[in-house]
Structure formats: structure tokens, C-alpha cells
Amino acid sequence: MKNLEFIYKRHSIRKYTEQEVKEEDLKAILEAAIQAPSGKHKQNWHFVIVKNKEKIERIAKLVEEKNKKIADNLGDEEWAENFKKFVKFATVFRTAPVLVLVYAGKYTPTGLKELKAIGASQEEIDELSKANPGLQGVSAAIENLMLAAGELGYGTCWMTSPNYAAKEISEYVNFNKEGYYLAAVTPLGVPAIEGKSPERKPLEEVITVIE
Ligand SMILES: Cc1cc2nc3c(=O)[nH]c(=O)nc-3n(C[C@H](O)[C@H](O)[C@H](O)COP(=O)(O)O)c2cc1C
């Protein structure tokens, strides 16, 4: 069996030490990220690296403030309480020394214009867009980033729950690139606790083999 340890040692890390991420490691991790494949080789990703602890804390506060604003307007106490309860999973990046904001750029799936041109049904057009190839490339880059980070002794956590505060976050870091939107964020730092992943569904449940 080949050594796939680098896959199995990646876990979502939600607590970090104060230890800095070395500049050369950060560069190596980001270089690994951009080796990912992308549709039409568009490389439609952009990484905003926040290295300032106070700014990272401010971003966590922005998520908390937006969470409260949404909860206060739900008009249902139980729903609001439940939504508020999960804010901690949207701010687990706050102890990390580095926060990576991953932006995805616009991408037109192959065949979309052509389907429109031949007057295909909206259903068929929506079905093609569902696979979201633009986001698939960016996701591959995120996974590369995480595996490289793990290999260099750092922890990460793929996060999309802060996305409800995407507008506030992007304004705060002053990032604005035509057609780009916040896809995910990940903290990056030395894990303060040993990571442990939840169990996976059995392989048989998620594969279909055609002989
Ligand atoms: C698209 C995506 C979004 C996620 N969003 C969050 C998040 O907002 N907060 C969080 O704590 N974990 C988040 N996770 C991490 C998952 O909870 C985690 O990957 C899963 O429980 C499996 O655990 P493992 O990563 O340790 O193997 C996300 C993971 C993915 C792939």
C-alpha cells in the first residue's frame, strides 16, 4: 500500500496555539494550493491572507454581529436561539495566527451558452450549472492547501458558515475583484489540540461499481 498518511492526518482544527506560521511555509502552502486543476485552466481563485490577530478577531466579531442581526429578525425565538448557538462554528478561526479567505471567480460551464442558444429548457440549464465547475477548481485548491498545511505540521478548517457575513468581511479587508465572491475561509496555524475526525460512511454506501 502506498503511503497516504498525508490524507489521513488532515483533520478540522478548531483551536490554535499562538505560534506563528513561518513565511516560507505559508508560501509553500499557497504554492501547493495553486497547483490544483481548474476548469479550462482558468485558475479562478484568489487568496486573501490575514496575518494580523486583531484583524482576525474583528472578522470573528463581524460574523457574530451578522449572526445576531439575522437571529433578531427571524421572528421566531426558538429558531433564533438555535441559529445563535451555531455561531461558534462560524468563528472557530479566531484563535489562529493566519486566516485565509478564499475567493472564487466567475466561470461559465462548457455548453451553457450553447444550451441557451438552442433554447434549452431552464431545467436543463439549471442542471448544468448545478455541478458548478468554477467552484470545483477552487475547492481542489482549498484541499491542496489543507493537505500541504497538514504535511508541514499546521492545522486548517474548511469553513463556509461565516459566508453569511461575506459582504461585511470583504468590505472590512477591502477586497473587491470583479466577478469574485467569498467561497470559504480557513484558519491556518499550529493545532492546540490533537485533531480527530468523525467516522466516515462505509465505502460500500457511497460507491457503485459497474463491472
Ligand atoms: C464545504 C465545507 C464547509 C465547512 N464549514 C465548516 C464551518 O463553517 N465550521 C466548522 O467548524 N467546520 C466546517 N467544516 C468542517 C466539517 O465539519 C468537517 O470537515 C467534517 O466534520 C469532517 O471532519 P474532518 O474535517 O476533521 O475530517 C466544513 C467543511 C466543508 C468541506
UniProtKB/TrEMBL annotation:
Location of the Nitroreductase domain: 7-182
Sorted UniProt keywords: Flavoprotein, FMN, Oxidoreductase
GO MF: oxidoreductase activity
Keyword Oxidoreductase included in the entry's annotation: yes
Domain of life: Bacteria
Name of this protein: Nitroreductase family protein
